[in-house]
DNA sequence: TTTT
DNA sequence: TTTT
């Protein structure tokens, strides 16, 4: 009935821009948010939270965000689930963002990632997302996960868009 | 660096109260939060979001919350991970709540679950949590999951407490 | 750069619906939000926070909200200022809401205000708003306050709309 | 019943640290938060939102925040009121912060305010707050306003502390 | 495994 | 001017 999340943290990698078959942009990235306390061993800990953006916001994020950049994200928690190739139901929790603020310009900060001007075309960043196995699924219930296991966009229609 | 979540929804079941070996109370429940739009098929959808509370708040939740009750939850997103018994890393996302508001008193609303006065002793609710297999783990990195696979509290020290 | 507010409380009066000259609906109400602690004298205290909604949401609020109803409000803080008739600058802080949830249906709760079905036409609720003096102003800087001192809508154009 | 605010913006001045008679630290500053749209004239607009912090957080803010610094603030809206010297009731809305994040270190950004290392002793910054007249009041109802009209801390007890 |  |  009400579902609001606000996060401030740093990108763990460059964002990944894809397109649905009908041409809608969708970008995924993970932000590391430091916890407000240290573990019993005295180490700083962080939560690594997956974020998804759609449409215009997806393209802006792909153009301006880079690994290590401090970023504010506003959105809602979404929990989707799919059956994996072993017939087991897998739950995936993501933040569907509707507002992203770039708290560091390309000039400053960051994690030594050269960086500089925004890239005009977000190049394909290759495989390596969190899921495993050769299945895909994940959309049996109208949810949004643009990422198949081989790193190619999977089949989603515009009707899957969250707003 | 900043991690804030606010949810309003309904409990999908009665909450489960457990205690850590050192006697700290911890309560888990899931709230169903209706999405602000319907799916392409016109059906209402919801996200089912797991919530964890600790200490005094855990006991208050166990005493006053019941299945179906409208509830506001404030907290932070926590992502923990553990290796399951097949050697695969499993990610679990929960909201660690520090503020819970009961938006329906025991008198009104609810889902016809008898209910009424708060129970004085939260009875043990037994098995059936989300994890599978006979392992346990989940705490290799100082994270908080009080629930083992056989429904018994697992070994956590007070140092695991989030605040 | 980011400005987000979430409140849960009760209406102190029925909401007031007005229209701008160009016909845009705008509704104002105040919600009382209990503080999480008591004063030194042991009394419960509350903050009384003015809320403004626009367009479709304004009409829905006017139709379904009533004095005493428990309500969740999501929006942003807006601070506008104007020069009053004594030449003094007055600051007004309001929450401009973009999401309002009715946590009590007309059936239950409420403050014994008869109530029941939503009114089809929100009747004119007359004077008595917060400002004083016979001036009006308040819009010298493109801000939104639809309420003049004599209880009549003042001159705002569609361009004043916040979204 | 629930009252949560999250803001990201820049300080309009250096923060002002004061102490209550019993020695509790309290710091006030204003942050400018750009609106998500431009006015009809195409100008960027901002809301100027007063923030109050207490105790340890007050001292940290006084030591590390400076004019122009990008800052995240988490807290609750508080509306207090007092009778001014003309016998008129004045309403003051502030954000009582319980979490402040410094999004720019002393090295980078800022508004050319020399700056650098945190000051060890927050010097008295003198008069010039928003209130006017020679009265004071403002605390008849157990509210927290550490600022009297002549810029000196006024009489508040520890009991006025919000948490 | 899901709530109204 | 304030709600339960």
TrEMBL record, chains A, B, C, D:
Signal peptide positions are none
* UniProt cross-references to Gene3D superfamilies, sorted A to Z: Nucleic acid-binding proteins
Stretches for region Disordered: 103-163
Keyword hit for DNA damage = yes
UniProt entry keywords in alphabetical sequence: DNA damage, DNA recombination, DNA repair, DNA replication, DNA-binding
DNA repair as a keyword? yes
Q: Which Pfam families did the record assign?
A: SSB
Q: Write down the superkingdom of origin.
A: Bacteria
Mark out the compositionally biased spans (Gly residues): 125-140
- Free-text function comment from the UniProt entry: Plays an important role in DNA replication, recombination and repair. Binds to ssDNA and to an array of partner proteins to recruit them to their sites of action during DNA metabolism.
Protein name from the UniProt record: Single-stranded DNA-binding protein
Name the source organism. Paenibacillus physcomitrellae
């Amino acid at each position: 009935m009400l579902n609001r999340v606000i996060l401030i943290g740093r990108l763990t990698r460059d964002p990944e821009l894809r397109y649905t078959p009908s041409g809608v942009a969708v970008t995924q990235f993970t932000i590391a948010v430091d916890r407000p306390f240290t573990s019993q061993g005295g180490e700083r800990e962080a939560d690594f939270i997956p974020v998804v953006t759609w449409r215009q916001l997806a393209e802006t994020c792909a153009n301006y965000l880079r690994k290590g950049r401090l970023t504010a994200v506003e959105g809602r928690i979404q929990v989707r689930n799919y059956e994996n190739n072993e017939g087991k139901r897998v739950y995936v929790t993501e933040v569907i963002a509707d507002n992203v603020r770039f708290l560091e310009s390309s000039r400053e900060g960051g994690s030594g990632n050269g960086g500089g001007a925004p890239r005009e075309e977000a190049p394909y960043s290759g495989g390596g997302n969190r899921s495993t196995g050769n299945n895909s699924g994940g959309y049996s219930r109208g949810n949004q996960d643009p990422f198949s296991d081989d790193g190619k966009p999977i089949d989603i229609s515009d009707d899957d868009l969250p707003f």
